[in-house]
Specification:
Layout: H1 2-21, E1 32-42, H2 47-54, E2 60-64, E3 71-83, H3 86-99, E4 108-112, E5 130-141, E6 146-155, H4 161-172, E7 188-196, H5 199-214, E8 221-234, H6 242-251, E9 256-263, E10 266-272, E11 275-280, E12 283-294, H7 299-311, H8 313-333, E13 334-339, E14 344-348, E15 351-362, H9 368-375, E16 383-384, H10 386-396, E17 407-411, E18 415-420, E19 424-428, E20 431-440, H11 446-456, H12 458-466
Antiparallel strand pairs: 1-6, 2-3, 2-9, 3-5, 4-5, 4-17, 5-6, 7-8, 8-16, 8-20, 9-10, 10-19, 11-12, 11-18, 12-15, 13-15, 14-15, 17-18, 19-20
Length: 467
């Protein structure tokens, strides 16, 4: 690998030199992304995450799609865009689309909060309503079976060319390319659990919600959430939330894996089962995922629970709300669309969900801003009708969701994919804040819904037991 790494830096400097020699009359659209990459080798499972863990940087980002066709580990940021309003989000997406317009240009990675109208608290202040980053250094895999190492720079104008080379050389020297067979060593365990709300308060909230739904008013469904805080017990060295990311990625390969670290003291990460949407050119793929039961302890029990989920009126109602929502959005965004004929089951960690998939052709004038603001938040994380459910959530929940139940993914002109930010946690100041939610309809039982949240959070508990 050492020779390939040297080749990459040499190629990058050569391309930057060629760029600086181009005449000022050349039609370079500033700002401009210069990207250089080399193929490293056939990769072993876990190679990208293993490299990611070894990097001593406080700025990191990771993304892996659900099929594991694409896996990206980013270290340091060549460019970061943050904002707090929908106008700023629109401007950011337009900029990203323009600077990633050349085929092969890397995409930006990042996320968007659950509700841009919701006030933020100190827990989320550094993340803003949205943050997108262009990694300075990427190690990634794709369908070719090779590892690709990439250097990216974001150059605002010609005057930054020389300083960009120096900055990359300086940060490149800090990267760790030494091979490592060191097994995952947990750096902390979870303790001192605090739930918000506590179980007694939760029962009261669910009873109030089901009473309103049964009263025959406009509210049909609401998704209520819980924030569980674990204080971290350090077992040596520096606390690293990347250990949790690796644990999730290795223990279950069925979902999207995402991670963003903006400083040494915080990180937001998760393992989501749910795609918000994927766009390739003018093609769009999305899904309705809702309704939940646990997995079985045996093959026989698994089949029984799966059949019960298919036949459950309560779960079918939850799922139908999302199906109707997706169909309504696609009818506005697409010239044509279709759905899978039958519902399926999506298994994820210790739970399974009802799933129906959709695909369509987008209207040519639409952007990713139009798509994401049409889909997020879905009834799977908000409720029906949306505005009323969001108002009820704001009244009922004593904490701010921030990026929980928002969207996280990769954004570029050529291709975009977002998952819904579920099964997630925020690490901040030596505490882990874990977020879980459930859909409430007329027949919801408070105790059963609490148990469902425990099942959804079980991978965090299992990590604690490993320690």
């Amino acid at each position: 690998m050492e020779s390939k790494v040297a080749d990459l830096l040499k190629a990058f400097k050569s391309e930057m030199q060629a760029l600086s020699c181009r005449s000022e009359s050349d039609q370079i659209m500033w700002p401009f992304i210069q990207s250089t990459e080399v193929a490293i080798e056939n990769h072993s499972p876990g190679a990208v995450l293993s490299w990611f863990r070894r990097q001593d940087s406080e700025k990191k980002v990771f993304w892996a799609d659900r099929e594991r066709n694409l896996e990206i580990a980013g270290v340091n940021f060549a460019h970061k865009i943050q904002g707090d309003s929908l106008d700023e989000l629109n401007a950011a997406i337009n900029l990203i689309s323009r600077v990633t317009g050349t085929p092969g240009t890397p995409g930006y990675l990042g996320g968007i909060c659950f509700n841009t109208e919701e006030p933020f608290d100190d827990l989320w202040i550094d993340y803003h309503r949205f943050t997108f980053v262009l990694p300075m250094f990427e190690l990634r895999t794709c369908n070719s079976g090779f590892l690709w190492l990439r250097v990216n720079t974001f150059i605002r104008d010609r005057s930054e060319l020389e300083s960009a080379v120096g900055n990359v050389e300086r940060e490149f020297s800090k990267l760790n390319f030494e091979p490592s067979d060191t097994p995952l060593a947990f750096s902390f365990s979870l303790a001192s659990r605090t739930d918000e709300p506590i179980k007694e308060k939760w029962v009261t909230l669910i009873e109030a919600a089901t009473h309103e739904i049964k009263s025959g008013g406009d509210l049909k469904k609401i998704v209520l959430a819980r924030k569980t805080q674990f204080d971290l017990v350090q077992s040596g060295g520096r606390v690293s939330p990347i250990d949790l990311l690796v644990y999730f990625a290795e223990s279950d390969t069925s979902g999207f894996t995402y991670y963003i670290q903006l400083s040494e003291k915080d990180a937001f990460f998760g393992k989501s089962p749910e795609r918000l949407y994927k766009r390739t050119g003018d093609g769009i793929f999305c899904e309705a995922l809702a309704g939940t039961t646990r997995i079985g302890r045996s093959a026989e029990e698994e089949l029984l629970l799966k059949n019960e989920l298919f036949l459950s009126d309560k779960d079918s109602m939850e799922h139908s709300f999302v199906v109707n929502f997706v169909q309504d959005v696609l009818s506005r965004l697409c010239t044509d669309f279709k759905s899978s004929q039958l519902r399926d089951i999506k298994r994820h960690f210790n739970v399974q969900h009802l799933l129906q998939q959709f695909s369509g052709t987008l209207r040519p004038e639409l952007t990713d801003y139009d798509i994401i603001t049409s889909f997020s938040p879905t009834p799977a994380v908000g409720g029906v009708p949306t505005v009323m459910a969001l108002n009820r959530i704001d009244d009922a929940e004593a904490f701010r969701r921030g990026w929980y139940a928002g969207a996280f993914g990769m954004l570029s002109q050529e291709e975009t994919e977002f998952c819904v930010s579920l099964r997630c946690a925020l690490y901040k100041d030596h505490a882990l804040h874990v977020f879980t939610g459930v859909g409430i309809v007329a027949d919801s039982d408070p105790v059963c819904e609490w148990e469902e949240m425990e099942n959804k959070m079980s991978h965090f508990i299992q990590y604690s037991l490993c320690n």
